[in-house]
Amino acid sequence: MTHITIKNIGPIKEVSFDLNKINIFMGPQSSGKSTIAKIVSFCSWYEKNVILHTSNRPNFFEELISFHNLEESYFSDSSEIQYESDICKLDFKWKWKDTSKNRVDYHLKGGLVFRNRKISYIPAERNFVTLQGLGKYNETRDNILSFMYDWFMAKKELTQTNSFPMPISGLGDISYYYDKETDADQVEIDHDRNIKLNHASSGLRSSIPLLVVFNYIMIGIYRSKRTKTPFEIIDLEEKLKYIKSESQDTTEEIKSKMMQLKSMIDDMTSSLRLLQNPDEFNKTLMSIQEQMANILGYYSDYHYSQVIIEEPELNLFPKTQQELIYYMLETINTSGQAHQLILTTHSPFILFALNNCMMGGLVGNNMPSDEAIALPSFNSWVNPQDVSIYEIHYGGIRRIQDEDGIIEDNYLNQAYKENSKEYLSMLNYYEDEE
Question: Which pTM was predicted?
Answer without folding.
Answer: 0.79
